[in-house]
Amino acid sequence: MINVSKLKKGIIIDHIEAGHGFEIYKELHLNDIDDVVVLLKNIPSKKMKQKDLIKIETDLPIDMNVLGLIDPNVTINFVKDGEMYKKIKLTLPKVVEGIMKCKNPRCITQHEEVKEIKFYLVNEDKKQYRCEYCDAYTTFMEKE
Ligand SMILES: [Zn+2]
Protein backbone atom coordinates (compact mmCIF):
# COMPACT_ATOMS: atom_id res chain seq x y z
CA MET A 1 0.00 0.00 0.00
CA ILE A 2 2.76 2.41 0.89
CA ASN A 3 5.02 2.56 -2.11
CA VAL A 4 8.51 2.96 -0.72
CA SER A 5 10.16 2.80 -4.11
CA LYS A 6 8.63 6.14 -5.01
CA LEU A 7 10.92 7.72 -2.48
CA LYS A 8 14.33 8.15 -4.11
CA LYS A 9 16.22 9.21 -1.02
CA GLY A 10 15.57 10.22 2.54
CA ILE A 11 13.85 8.54 5.44
CA ILE A 12 10.54 6.93 6.26
CA ILE A 13 9.41 7.11 9.85
CA ASP A 14 7.14 4.10 10.26
CA HIS A 15 5.03 2.62 13.05
CA ILE A 16 4.25 6.00 14.55
CA GLU A 17 1.47 5.72 17.10
CA ALA A 18 -1.71 7.10 15.48
CA GLY A 19 -1.99 10.77 16.41
CA HIS A 20 1.72 11.28 17.07
CA GLY A 21 2.57 11.98 13.45
CA PHE A 22 1.74 15.65 13.58
CA GLU A 23 3.63 16.03 16.88
CA ILE A 24 6.72 14.61 15.21
CA TYR A 25 6.14 16.83 12.19
CA LYS A 26 6.12 19.88 14.46
CA GLU A 27 9.00 18.90 16.74
CA LEU A 28 11.30 18.00 13.85
CA HIS A 29 10.37 21.33 12.20
CA LEU A 30 9.51 19.54 8.98
CA ASN A 31 7.55 22.60 7.94
CA ASP A 32 10.87 24.36 7.40
CA ILE A 33 12.16 21.72 4.98
CA ASP A 34 11.94 22.63 1.32
CA ASP A 35 12.06 19.00 0.22
CA VAL A 36 9.10 16.64 -0.14
CA VAL A 37 7.48 15.70 3.16
CA VAL A 38 4.48 13.40 3.36
CA LEU A 39 2.51 12.84 6.53
CA LEU A 40 0.08 9.94 6.43
CA LYS A 41 -2.43 9.61 9.22
CA ASN A 42 -4.44 6.69 10.56
CA ILE A 43 -3.18 4.06 8.13
CA PRO A 44 -4.69 0.64 8.86
CA SER A 45 -2.02 -1.57 10.43
CA LYS A 46 -2.15 -5.26 11.38
CA LYS A 47 0.11 -4.77 14.35
CA MET A 48 -1.16 -1.43 15.62
CA LYS A 49 -4.68 -1.17 14.19
CA GLN A 50 -3.82 2.34 13.05
CA LYS A 51 -0.54 4.11 12.58
CA ASP A 52 0.92 7.32 11.23
CA LEU A 53 3.81 7.47 8.80
CA ILE A 54 6.09 10.24 7.60
CA LYS A 55 8.21 10.25 4.44
CA ILE A 56 10.92 12.87 4.11
CA GLU A 57 12.81 13.14 0.84
CA THR A 58 15.88 14.90 2.12
CA ASP A 59 19.56 14.55 2.91
CA LEU A 60 19.18 16.54 6.10
CA PRO A 61 20.02 14.79 9.34
CA ILE A 62 17.06 14.02 11.57
CA ASP A 63 17.24 14.45 15.32
CA MET A 64 16.74 10.90 16.55
CA ASN A 65 16.61 12.02 20.18
CA VAL A 66 13.54 14.14 19.53
CA LEU A 67 11.95 11.24 17.68
CA GLY A 68 12.78 8.83 20.47
CA LEU A 69 11.28 11.15 23.04
CA ILE A 70 7.98 11.53 21.23
CA ASP A 71 7.59 7.93 20.15
CA PRO A 72 10.29 5.41 21.08
CA ASN A 73 8.54 2.62 19.16
CA VAL A 74 8.93 4.01 15.66
CA THR A 75 11.00 2.39 12.94
CA ILE A 76 13.24 4.49 10.73
CA ASN A 77 13.87 3.33 7.19
CA PHE A 78 16.70 4.95 5.27
CA VAL A 79 16.29 5.14 1.52
CA LYS A 80 18.97 5.76 -1.09
CA ASP A 81 18.61 5.48 -4.87
CA GLY A 82 15.05 4.27 -4.37
CA GLU A 83 16.15 1.35 -2.19
CA MET A 84 15.75 0.84 1.52
CA TYR A 85 19.29 0.23 2.77
CA LYS A 86 19.04 0.59 6.53
CA LYS A 87 16.38 0.15 9.16
CA ILE A 88 16.63 1.09 12.80
CA LYS A 89 14.32 0.78 15.77
CA LEU A 90 14.37 3.69 18.16
CA THR A 91 14.60 3.63 21.93
CA LEU A 92 14.24 6.31 24.56
CA PRO A 93 17.46 8.29 24.74
CA LYS A 94 19.36 7.79 28.02
CA VAL A 95 20.56 11.37 28.09
CA VAL A 96 18.87 14.33 26.45
CA GLU A 97 20.63 17.63 25.93
CA GLY A 98 19.27 20.90 24.62
CA ILE A 99 15.77 19.63 23.84
CA MET A 100 13.85 19.61 27.10
CA LYS A 101 13.10 22.33 29.60
CA CYS A 102 12.90 21.89 33.36
CA LYS A 103 9.40 22.45 34.73
CA ASN A 104 10.43 23.04 38.32
CA PRO A 105 9.67 26.74 39.06
CA ARG A 106 12.51 26.84 41.60
CA CYS A 107 15.10 25.44 39.25
CA ILE A 108 18.00 27.78 38.45
CA THR A 109 17.39 27.19 34.74
CA GLN A 110 14.07 29.03 35.07
CA HIS A 111 15.79 32.19 36.30
CA GLU A 112 19.09 32.20 34.53
CA GLU A 113 19.94 31.63 30.93
CA VAL A 114 21.15 28.05 30.93
CA LYS A 115 21.47 26.41 27.58
CA GLU A 116 21.88 22.74 26.78
CA ILE A 117 20.52 21.44 30.06
CA LYS A 118 21.15 17.73 30.43
CA PHE A 119 18.35 15.38 31.44
CA TYR A 120 18.93 11.78 32.49
CA LEU A 121 16.39 9.02 31.94
CA VAL A 122 15.09 7.75 35.28
CA ASN A 123 11.88 5.92 34.40
CA GLU A 124 11.48 4.28 31.03
CA ASP A 125 7.78 3.44 31.40
CA LYS A 126 6.79 6.93 32.39
CA LYS A 127 9.39 8.55 30.11
CA GLN A 128 10.64 10.57 33.05
CA TYR A 129 13.89 12.49 32.99
CA ARG A 130 15.88 14.08 35.80
CA CYS A 131 17.15 17.65 35.52
CA GLU A 132 20.92 17.87 36.07
CA TYR A 133 20.56 21.09 38.06
CA CYS A 134 17.69 20.48 40.47
CA ASP A 135 17.01 16.71 40.17
CA ALA A 136 13.31 17.36 39.48
CA TYR A 137 11.62 14.82 37.20
CA THR A 138 10.11 15.99 33.96
CA THR A 139 8.70 14.56 30.75
CA PHE A 140 8.97 15.76 27.19
CA MET A 141 5.34 15.31 26.28
CA GLU A 142 2.86 17.20 28.46
CA LYS A 143 0.14 14.60 28.44
CA GLU A 144 2.37 11.71 29.48
ZN1 LIG B 1 15.72 21.74 37.01
Automatic annotation (TrEMBL):
<keyword id="KW-0665">Pyrimidine biosynthesis</keyword>
<keyword id="KW-0862">Zinc</keyword>
<dbReference type="GO" id="GO:0046872">
    <property type="term" value="F:metal ion binding"/>
</dbReference>
<dbReference type="InterPro" id="IPR020542">
    <property type="entry name" value="Asp_carbamoyltrfase_reg_C"/>
</dbReference>
<keyword id="KW-0479">Metal-binding</keyword>
<feature type="domain" description="Aspartate carbamoyltransferase regulatory subunit C-terminal">
    <location>
        <begin position="96"/>
        <end position="139"/>
    </location>
</feature>
<keyword id="KW-0808">Transferase</keyword>
<feature type="domain" description="Aspartate carbamoyltransferase regulatory subunit N-terminal">
    <location>
        <begin position="3"/>
        <end position="90"/>
    </location>
</feature>
<dbReference type="GO" id="GO:0009347">
    <property type="term" value="C:aspartate carbamoyltransferase complex"/>
</dbReference>
<dbReference type="Pfam" id="PF01948">
    <property type="entry name" value="PyrI"/>
</dbReference>
<dbReference type="InterPro" id="IPR020545">
    <property type="entry name" value="Asp_carbamoyltransf_reg_N"/>
</dbReference>
<dbReference type="GO" id="GO:0006221">
    <property type="term" value="P:pyrimidine nucleotide biosynthetic process"/>
</dbReference>
<dbReference type="Pfam" id="PF02748">
    <property type="entry name" value="PyrI_C"/>
</dbReference>
<dbReference type="InterPro" id="IPR002801">
    <property type="entry name" value="Asp_carbamoylTrfase_reg"/>
</dbReference>
<dbReference type="InterPro" id="IPR036793">
    <property type="entry name" value="Asp_carbatrfase_reg_N_sf"/>
</dbReference>
<protein>
    <submittedName>
        <fullName>Aspartate carbamoyltransferase</fullName>
    </submittedName>
</protein>
<dbReference type="InterPro" id="IPR036792">
    <property type="entry name" value="Asp_carbatrfase_reg_C_sf"/>
</dbReference>
<dbReference type="GO" id="GO:0016740">
    <property type="term" value="F:transferase activity"/>
</dbReference>
<dbReference type="GO" id="GO:0006207">
    <property type="term" value="P:'de novo' pyrimidine nucleobase biosynthetic process"/>
</dbReference>
